[in-house]
Amino acid sequence: MIYAYAFVAIAACVAIERFHNRKAKIAIALALAAFLAVGPRFYGNEAIFSVLADAAVYVMLALGLNIVVGFAGLLDLGYAAFFAIGAYTYGMLASPQFGLHLPFWALLFLAAALAALFGALLGAPTLRLHGDYLAIVTLGFGEIVPQIFQNLTKYTGGPNGIAALDVPTFFGHSFGASVMPYYYIALVGIVLALWISRNLRESRLGRAWMAIREDELAAKHAGIDVLRSKLAAFAIGASFSGIGGVLFAAKLALVSPDLFGFQVSVLIVSMLVLGGMGNIVGVVVGSLILTIVNSALLPQLNSLVDASFHTTVDLSNIHFLIYGAILVGIMLFRPEGLLPNRERRAELRNSGEVEAEA
Amino acid sequence: MHEFLAQLANGVELGAIYALIALGYTLVYGILELINFAHGDVYTFGSFTALVVLVALRAAHFLHGAGLILGIVAALAVAILACALLNAGIERLAYRRLRKAPRLAPLITAIGVSFMLENLIELWQGAAPVPFPNVIPNPELEIGALQVGVQQIVVVALAIATMVALHYFVKRSRLGKAMRAVAQDRDAASLVGIDVDRTIAITFLIAGALAGVAGFVGGVSFGSAWFLNGFGAGLRAFTAAVLGGIGNIAGAMLGGFLIGLLESFSTWFIGGQWSNVAVFSVLILVLVFRPSGLLGESLPEKV
After folding, report:
1. φ and ψ at A222, to 5 degrees?
2. Within a domain: residue B295?
3. Which CATH class, in words, describes the domain spanning A2-346?
4. CA A165 to CA A246: how far, in whole Å?
5. Fewest beta carbons less than 10 Å away: which of A234, B106, B118, B178?
6. Least CA distance to B110: which residue of chain A?
7. Among candidates B10, B2, B27, B5, which has minimal Cα distance to B259?
8. Contact call for B287 and A131, based on CB within 8 A
9. B298 within some domain
10. Over the stretch A191-227, which tens digit does the pLDDT of each residue have?
């Protein structure tokens, strides 16, 4: 069942990518949105809503990271830190921890703002760094943040985290035990994220990002305020992650520091790499594929293998083998990803030849 | 005073291990401008190969008298060889094709390789830390107020001997000269007849061998091996390499010892749970204020 939704969504994304007619694209996107909004109400259950909601949160995260890595070309290996900041914002301000029970909806905005603030705080001193160095600094940041949450036991519950987070309400109606509302919120979030991403890409700022990505020195000399543009990318990308964090924490009703490790950052980078960095539709496809592999395919393969070979294997043991193989395989054989961004594809396909000739 | 000296000795011991790993990062970065993210896991692999050899020899009742020395040498040699081959194999399979790709491509590949290695080592040896055979006798020696274990002395001596050997190899030998030439300008090096591919492969072999030594001494010093050890140790070692000035061999050694001392003293003063925060804060501060590292020269941007 879950595969049917994923398949339809991916097929629609590919179709959007293939069609050149703007109206056709919009029509497909609207049809897909309607299908995803209505379909699970008739053919679905809590388990499916849960996987779909997770997938939707990851799509949002991937779209946020895409702004940083795909548009501006800044490899951020600590993106999960902002996810953690968002989640802990909800965890600390809407739970018995401090007896604060701020409303979910306000915290969505607060988390976005806080994540953006931390994005800018991290970015301000470090964005002068180039390529690999920036990657390592962000990685370091990504290691520090969960550890701080783990160590400040008095405020954050330490290694156990904070449990029994508030159940959000919508105009006085509690979400209750169902995960369905989170799915719909995330769906709305994706639509907004897509809209923002698209508009940003076409904007002056978006063009500045791409110029920086292609050649920072040239961009600087063309009069682009490089540092400010990069900061904007960091802050905006982080804010998506902050919202994702609130949704994630509220759905799970729990936050703990081990949920936001390096693996999460790499998982999201893998989604971009798989789908095609910089291309919005590609990123959506990449994150759908990996979430479905993660939360539906691998668990089911487990039981399939168990039943057919009468053994107990745990394929979740080889999660990271699979991610690793995806990263390596894609980089070696299709570095532009499954649905590449046109400029990037040209760049990746030609750069070798150009250098070989030179 | 006692406590201070003990922490100093711990820091030097840790630092020796980080320095060995950092050298591997720095050699590869110097020649390819690639952060070989999988290097930390090569180190883990070294620990486990040494562990497996020692466990097998112990089971065969080989580790007595002269057999003990032979056994230790054998474990060290196997770890060195296995890591050298693994590292060179990674270069051949995963990085060589990407030499002309944009910078992010090999870095992401390296992360992928790192994940695969971690997972394979976990499948091989399990998810729990495995105790490392306690082969080196460890009586405490007192030198003035300083108390050190024989093990600590062996670890540090082995690491320093390896670094001295590396230093002379790179400065004096033909291959070392070729490595420096390729690091400086790959095209020019190939014009004067240096086989660039071979030189890069040899660099990876040497970096792997260093990780093998580090894996062995790390196993001895921590008393266990764990499939995720390489992630944390690798990050610290990379921090050390950056702190010293990446690409600079003396810098990696200096950085390694500094990070080791920082870790042991931060554990003493503010607690082990903050050591990651301390190390990475230093990394961020160094990169912000002196991106070329303590001993590195700042180069003008290439256009």
Report:
1. -85, 5
2. no
3. mainly alpha
4. 11
5. B178
6. A328
7. B10
8. no
9. no
10. 999 999 999 999 999 999 999 988 888 999 999 999 9
pTM, rounded to two decimals: 0.86
Give me the residue spans of the domains in chain A: 2-346
**Residues of chain B falling short of pLDDT 50:** 300-303
A144: contact with B, CB 8 A cutoff: yes
Q: Which of B34, B35, B120 sits opposite A136 (nearest CB)?
A: B35
Residues of chain A with C-beta less than 8 angstroms from the C-beta of B280: 140-141, 143-144
- Residue B202 phi, psi (nearest 5): -65, -35
pLDDT tens digits for B174-191? 999 999 999 888 899 999
Contact residues on chain B for A143, CB-CB shorter than 8 A: 235, 276, 280
At which residue do the structure tokens 């030439």 appear? B181
Task: Provide, as residue numbers in chain B, all residues whose Cβ is less than 8 Å from the Cβ of A137.
Answer: 283-284, 287
DSSP per-residue string spanning B53-120: HHHHHHHTT--STHHHHHHHHHHHHHHHHHHHHHHHHHIIIIIGGGTTS-THHHHHHHHHHHHHHHHH
Q: What is the CATH number of the domain that holds B24?
A: 1.10.3470
Question: How many domains are contained in chain B?
Answer: 1
Minimal CA separation from A144 to chain B, in Å: 5
Query: Higher model confidence: residue B85 or residue A321?
Result: B85
Of A137, A328, A352, the CB nearest to B113: A328
Q: Do B303 and A217 touch (CB under 8 A)?
A: yes
Identify which of B104, B108, B280 has the shortest CB distance to residue A140: B280
pLDDT-derived band at A176 (thresholds 50, 70, 90) equals: confident
In eight-state DSSP terms, residue B300 is P
Tell me if B296 is assigned to some domain: no
Q: What is the pLDDT of residue A316?
A: 66
Quickly list H helices, chain B: 2-32, 39-59, 66-90, 104-125, 150-172, 174-184, 186-191, 196-222, 229-244, 249-270, 275-289
**How far from A6 is each of A10, A48, B163, CA to CA, in Å?**
6, 11, 54
Residue in the structure block whose two tokens are 């008393």: B223
Number of Cβ atoms within 10 Å of the Cβ of B47: 32
Q: How confident is the model at residue A235 (pLDDT cuts 50, 70, 90)?
A: very high
The range of the structural domain enclosing residue B266 comes to: 2-289
